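Batch job 17 of 40 flagged for manual review because the log was empty.
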Amino acid sequence: MENGHYRVAPPGFTPAQWEEFMREGILIFEDALSAAEVDEYLAAVERVTTSHPNYRPGEYLGVQNFVELDPVLASLIDHPRHVGYVYDVYGEQLKLQLSELFLRTPGGKHNKWHPDGARTLPYGVFSPELPLQIKVGYWLTDLPHAKMGNFVYMPGSHRQQYFDAYDTHDSVSGERILCVPKGAMTIMHGSIWHRVEANESTVTRKNLFLAYCPSWLTAADRLTSDPTWLATLNREQRIIMRSYSHAYDHAKPPAADFPLFLDRETHLDHDPGRYPDYVSAARRKRRTTIEKFNENELVQV
Protein backbone atom coordinates (compact mmCIF):
# COMPACT_ATOMS: atom_id res chain seq x y z
CA MET A 1 0.00 0.00 0.00
CA GLU A 2 1.00 3.63 -0.39
CA ASN A 3 0.17 5.81 2.65
CA GLY A 4 -2.47 3.31 3.73
CA HIS A 5 -4.06 3.17 0.27
CA TYR A 6 -3.88 0.55 -2.45
CA ARG A 7 -1.46 1.25 -5.29
CA VAL A 8 -2.65 2.23 -8.74
CA ALA A 9 -1.48 -0.13 -11.48
CA PRO A 10 1.78 1.14 -13.03
CA PRO A 11 1.91 1.93 -16.78
CA GLY A 12 1.71 -1.01 -19.17
CA PHE A 13 0.99 -1.72 -22.82
CA THR A 14 -0.21 0.92 -25.21
CA PRO A 15 -2.50 -0.46 -27.92
CA ALA A 16 0.37 -0.13 -30.42
CA GLN A 17 2.78 -2.00 -28.15
CA TRP A 18 0.26 -4.77 -27.60
CA GLU A 19 -0.24 -5.12 -31.36
CA GLU A 20 3.53 -5.35 -31.86
CA PHE A 21 3.91 -7.81 -28.99
CA MET A 22 1.24 -10.11 -30.41
CA ARG A 23 2.70 -9.84 -33.93
CA GLU A 24 6.40 -10.25 -33.10
CA GLY A 25 6.23 -12.05 -29.75
CA ILE A 26 8.64 -9.61 -28.11
CA LEU A 27 9.13 -5.96 -27.18
CA ILE A 28 12.62 -4.47 -26.82
CA PHE A 29 13.35 -1.37 -24.72
CA GLU A 30 17.01 -0.45 -25.18
CA ASP A 31 17.28 2.28 -22.51
CA ALA A 32 15.11 0.85 -19.75
CA LEU A 33 17.80 1.04 -17.04
CA SER A 34 20.10 3.88 -16.06
CA ALA A 35 23.82 3.21 -15.64
CA ALA A 36 23.35 3.41 -11.86
CA GLU A 37 20.55 0.82 -11.98
CA VAL A 38 22.67 -1.53 -14.08
CA ASP A 39 25.49 -1.21 -11.54
CA GLU A 40 23.07 -1.87 -8.65
CA TYR A 41 21.76 -5.07 -10.27
CA LEU A 42 25.25 -6.21 -11.23
CA ALA A 43 26.37 -5.81 -7.62
CA ALA A 44 23.40 -7.91 -6.50
CA VAL A 45 24.19 -10.56 -9.11
CA GLU A 46 27.78 -10.62 -7.83
CA ARG A 47 26.59 -11.15 -4.26
CA VAL A 48 24.20 -13.95 -5.24
CA THR A 49 26.48 -15.82 -7.61
CA THR A 50 29.73 -15.70 -5.65
CA SER A 51 27.96 -17.07 -2.57
CA HIS A 52 26.15 -19.81 -4.52
CA PRO A 53 27.36 -23.38 -3.87
CA ASN A 54 27.61 -24.09 -7.62
CA TYR A 55 29.65 -21.00 -8.41
CA ARG A 56 32.99 -21.62 -10.11
CA PRO A 57 34.92 -18.63 -11.48
CA GLY A 58 34.85 -18.61 -15.28
CA GLU A 59 32.10 -21.25 -15.52
CA TYR A 60 28.47 -21.03 -16.60
CA LEU A 61 25.96 -20.56 -13.79
CA GLY A 62 22.18 -20.38 -13.65
CA VAL A 63 20.38 -19.51 -10.41
CA GLN A 64 16.62 -19.83 -9.94
CA ASN A 65 14.33 -18.01 -7.48
CA PHE A 66 16.87 -15.19 -7.23
CA VAL A 67 14.28 -12.83 -5.77
CA GLU A 68 14.59 -14.69 -2.46
CA LEU A 69 18.37 -14.30 -2.39
CA ASP A 70 18.90 -10.52 -2.35
CA PRO A 71 16.68 -7.55 -1.39
CA VAL A 72 17.73 -5.54 -4.45
CA LEU A 73 16.58 -8.39 -6.68
CA ALA A 74 13.39 -8.84 -4.63
CA SER A 75 12.47 -5.28 -5.60
CA LEU A 76 11.98 -6.52 -9.17
CA ILE A 77 8.94 -8.63 -8.22
CA ASP A 78 6.60 -5.65 -8.59
CA HIS A 79 8.90 -3.07 -10.15
CA PRO A 80 6.85 -0.36 -11.89
CA ARG A 81 9.26 -0.50 -14.83
CA HIS A 82 7.66 -3.72 -16.02
CA VAL A 83 4.93 -5.05 -13.70
CA GLY A 84 2.20 -3.00 -15.39
CA TYR A 85 2.74 -4.93 -18.62
CA VAL A 86 2.17 -8.33 -17.05
CA TYR A 87 -0.68 -6.99 -14.91
CA ASP A 88 -2.38 -5.88 -18.12
CA VAL A 89 -2.61 -9.54 -19.17
CA TYR A 90 -3.06 -11.43 -15.87
CA GLY A 91 -4.82 -8.78 -13.84
CA GLU A 92 -5.84 -9.58 -10.29
CA GLN A 93 -4.35 -13.08 -10.45
CA LEU A 94 -0.83 -12.05 -11.46
CA LYS A 95 1.89 -14.41 -10.23
CA LEU A 96 5.68 -14.54 -10.46
CA GLN A 97 6.25 -17.98 -11.94
CA LEU A 98 10.05 -17.96 -12.12
CA SER A 99 13.05 -15.73 -11.51
CA GLU A 100 16.34 -16.80 -13.00
CA LEU A 101 19.75 -15.22 -13.51
CA PHE A 102 22.49 -16.38 -15.86
CA LEU A 103 26.22 -16.02 -16.15
CA ARG A 104 26.91 -17.14 -19.70
CA THR A 105 30.66 -17.38 -19.70
CA PRO A 106 32.91 -17.64 -22.78
CA GLY A 107 32.65 -21.16 -24.10
CA GLY A 108 29.89 -21.97 -21.59
CA LYS A 109 26.55 -23.73 -21.95
CA HIS A 110 24.01 -22.49 -24.51
CA ASN A 111 20.42 -23.52 -25.26
CA LYS A 112 18.84 -25.28 -28.24
CA TRP A 113 15.68 -24.04 -29.96
CA HIS A 114 12.66 -24.32 -27.66
CA PRO A 115 9.59 -22.48 -26.35
CA ASP A 116 9.26 -21.88 -22.61
CA GLY A 117 6.92 -23.80 -20.37
CA ALA A 118 5.43 -27.23 -20.97
CA ARG A 119 6.68 -29.18 -24.00
CA THR A 120 4.45 -32.25 -24.45
CA LEU A 121 1.35 -30.04 -24.21
CA PRO A 122 2.57 -26.48 -24.70
CA TYR A 123 0.72 -23.50 -23.27
CA GLY A 124 -0.41 -22.57 -26.78
CA VAL A 125 -2.58 -25.70 -26.99
CA PHE A 126 -4.81 -24.28 -24.28
CA SER A 127 -4.38 -20.58 -25.00
CA PRO A 128 -3.58 -20.09 -28.70
CA GLU A 129 -3.96 -16.31 -28.48
CA LEU A 130 -3.09 -14.91 -25.06
CA PRO A 131 0.23 -15.96 -23.53
CA LEU A 132 0.09 -18.11 -20.40
CA GLN A 133 3.61 -16.93 -19.63
CA ILE A 134 5.34 -13.60 -20.20
CA LYS A 135 9.05 -13.33 -19.50
CA VAL A 136 10.71 -10.02 -18.67
CA GLY A 137 14.44 -9.86 -19.37
CA TYR A 138 17.02 -7.44 -18.02
CA TRP A 139 20.27 -7.30 -19.97
CA LEU A 140 23.22 -6.19 -17.81
CA THR A 141 26.03 -6.69 -20.34
CA ASP A 142 26.71 -4.89 -23.60
CA LEU A 143 25.95 -7.26 -26.49
CA PRO A 144 26.97 -5.24 -29.57
CA HIS A 145 27.33 -8.20 -31.94
CA ALA A 146 26.58 -11.90 -32.39
CA LYS A 147 28.44 -14.85 -30.86
CA MET A 148 28.35 -13.36 -27.36
CA GLY A 149 25.88 -15.84 -25.90
CA ASN A 150 23.09 -13.79 -27.46
CA PHE A 151 19.41 -14.58 -27.20
CA VAL A 152 18.10 -15.65 -30.64
CA TYR A 153 14.40 -15.75 -31.52
CA MET A 154 12.06 -16.29 -34.45
CA PRO A 155 9.63 -13.37 -34.73
CA GLY A 156 5.99 -14.41 -34.72
CA SER A 157 6.76 -18.04 -33.88
CA HIS A 158 4.67 -17.96 -30.69
CA ARG A 159 1.70 -18.83 -32.91
CA GLN A 160 3.11 -22.18 -34.05
CA GLN A 161 3.27 -25.49 -32.20
CA TYR A 162 6.07 -27.04 -34.26
CA PHE A 163 9.48 -25.80 -35.33
CA ASP A 164 11.77 -27.71 -37.67
CA ALA A 165 14.95 -26.76 -35.81
CA TYR A 166 13.59 -27.80 -32.38
CA ASP A 167 16.32 -29.26 -30.11
CA THR A 168 19.12 -28.08 -32.41
CA HIS A 169 21.55 -25.15 -32.32
CA ASP A 170 20.97 -24.56 -36.05
CA SER A 171 20.76 -21.06 -37.43
CA VAL A 172 17.41 -20.57 -39.21
CA SER A 173 16.42 -18.15 -41.96
CA GLY A 174 14.49 -15.22 -40.49
CA GLU A 175 15.83 -15.57 -36.95
CA ARG A 176 16.79 -12.42 -35.01
CA ILE A 177 19.89 -12.20 -32.86
CA LEU A 178 19.39 -9.87 -29.92
CA CYS A 179 22.20 -7.31 -29.89
CA VAL A 180 21.45 -4.72 -27.22
CA PRO A 181 23.34 -2.38 -24.90
CA LYS A 182 23.47 -3.07 -21.18
CA GLY A 183 20.38 -1.62 -19.55
CA ALA A 184 17.97 -3.03 -22.12
CA MET A 185 14.71 -4.71 -21.12
CA THR A 186 12.73 -7.24 -23.14
CA ILE A 187 9.16 -8.46 -22.70
CA MET A 188 8.70 -11.83 -24.36
CA HIS A 189 5.75 -14.10 -25.13
CA GLY A 190 6.46 -17.41 -23.39
CA SER A 191 5.57 -19.45 -26.47
CA ILE A 192 8.05 -17.78 -28.84
CA TRP A 193 10.69 -20.16 -30.21
CA HIS A 194 14.21 -19.15 -29.16
CA ARG A 195 17.73 -20.39 -28.46
CA VAL A 196 21.02 -19.05 -27.13
CA GLU A 197 24.11 -18.59 -29.26
CA ALA A 198 27.52 -19.85 -28.24
CA ASN A 199 29.63 -17.26 -26.46
CA GLU A 200 32.82 -16.92 -28.48
CA SER A 201 33.73 -13.55 -26.96
CA THR A 202 35.79 -12.76 -23.87
CA VAL A 203 32.75 -11.29 -22.07
CA THR A 204 30.44 -13.07 -19.62
CA ARG A 205 26.81 -12.34 -20.49
CA LYS A 206 24.87 -11.45 -17.35
CA ASN A 207 21.12 -11.13 -17.30
CA LEU A 208 17.97 -11.55 -15.23
CA PHE A 209 14.66 -13.12 -16.23
CA LEU A 210 11.32 -12.86 -14.44
CA ALA A 211 8.46 -14.96 -15.81
CA TYR A 212 4.86 -14.17 -14.92
CA CYS A 213 1.66 -16.17 -15.36
CA PRO A 214 -1.89 -16.51 -13.99
CA SER A 215 -1.86 -17.61 -10.35
CA TRP A 216 -3.52 -20.92 -11.18
CA LEU A 217 -0.49 -22.09 -13.16
CA THR A 218 2.19 -23.89 -11.18
CA ALA A 219 5.34 -22.01 -10.20
CA ALA A 220 8.56 -23.16 -11.85
CA ASP A 221 11.21 -22.51 -9.17
CA ARG A 222 9.55 -23.15 -5.80
CA LEU A 223 6.57 -24.65 -4.03
CA THR A 224 6.25 -22.05 -1.26
CA SER A 225 8.49 -19.25 -0.03
CA ASP A 226 10.21 -18.81 3.32
CA PRO A 227 7.70 -17.04 5.63
CA THR A 228 10.47 -14.99 7.24
CA TRP A 229 11.51 -13.72 3.83
CA LEU A 230 7.90 -13.04 2.80
CA ALA A 231 7.54 -10.81 5.86
CA THR A 232 10.23 -8.50 4.42
CA LEU A 233 8.18 -7.80 1.26
CA ASN A 234 5.59 -5.14 0.58
CA ARG A 235 1.97 -6.18 0.12
CA GLU A 236 2.03 -6.40 -3.68
CA GLN A 237 5.27 -8.39 -3.75
CA ARG A 238 3.94 -10.87 -1.22
CA ILE A 239 0.73 -11.37 -3.22
CA ILE A 240 2.56 -11.80 -6.53
CA MET A 241 4.70 -14.57 -5.00
CA ARG A 242 1.44 -16.50 -4.31
CA SER A 243 2.95 -18.57 -1.49
CA TYR A 244 -0.29 -20.27 -0.49
CA SER A 245 -0.46 -23.24 1.87
CA HIS A 246 -3.98 -24.12 0.69
CA ALA A 247 -3.68 -25.33 -2.91
CA TYR A 248 -7.00 -23.97 -4.17
CA ASP A 249 -6.01 -20.45 -3.11
CA HIS A 250 -4.06 -20.34 -6.38
CA ALA A 251 -7.39 -20.45 -8.25
CA LYS A 252 -9.40 -18.48 -5.67
CA PRO A 253 -6.98 -16.22 -3.79
CA PRO A 254 -7.91 -15.01 -0.30
CA ALA A 255 -10.11 -11.92 -0.08
CA ALA A 256 -7.26 -10.00 1.57
CA ASP A 257 -5.30 -10.29 -1.69
CA PHE A 258 -7.83 -8.15 -3.58
CA PRO A 259 -7.30 -5.72 -5.08
CA LEU A 260 -3.72 -6.27 -6.18
CA PHE A 261 -3.78 -2.85 -7.90
CA LEU A 262 -6.38 -0.19 -8.46
CA ASP A 263 -7.49 0.51 -12.02
CA ARG A 264 -5.01 2.71 -13.87
CA GLU A 265 -7.65 5.09 -15.24
CA THR A 266 -10.46 5.08 -12.67
CA HIS A 267 -8.38 4.34 -9.53
CA LEU A 268 -11.18 1.98 -8.48
CA ASP A 269 -10.93 -1.59 -7.18
CA HIS A 270 -13.79 -2.78 -9.41
CA ASP A 271 -15.45 -2.22 -12.78
CA PRO A 272 -18.41 0.12 -12.10
CA GLY A 273 -21.89 -1.01 -13.01
CA ARG A 274 -21.04 -4.69 -13.34
CA TYR A 275 -22.27 -6.13 -10.02
CA PRO A 276 -24.65 -5.27 -7.17
CA ASP A 277 -22.93 -3.71 -4.17
CA TYR A 278 -23.31 -6.83 -2.05
CA VAL A 279 -20.88 -8.83 -4.24
CA SER A 280 -17.48 -8.67 -2.53
CA ALA A 281 -14.36 -7.52 -4.39
CA ALA A 282 -12.76 -10.97 -4.18
CA ARG A 283 -15.74 -12.49 -6.02
CA ARG A 284 -15.96 -9.90 -8.79
CA LYS A 285 -14.50 -10.40 -12.24
CA ARG A 286 -12.39 -7.41 -13.24
CA ARG A 287 -11.57 -6.75 -16.86
CA THR A 288 -7.91 -6.76 -17.79
CA THR A 289 -6.41 -4.03 -19.95
CA ILE A 290 -6.15 -6.52 -22.81
CA GLU A 291 -9.86 -7.26 -22.54
CA LYS A 292 -10.51 -3.54 -22.74
CA PHE A 293 -8.33 -3.27 -25.85
CA ASN A 294 -10.31 -6.09 -27.48
CA GLU A 295 -13.65 -4.58 -26.53
CA ASN A 296 -12.61 -1.26 -28.06
CA GLU A 297 -11.64 -3.06 -31.26
CA LEU A 298 -15.05 -4.71 -31.39
CA VAL A 299 -16.76 -1.34 -30.96
CA GLN A 300 -14.74 0.15 -33.84
CA VAL A 301 -15.49 -2.66 -36.33
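Reviewer: the log was empty due to a logging misconfiguration, but the result itself is present. The radius of gyration is 20 Å. Unflagging and moving on to job 18.
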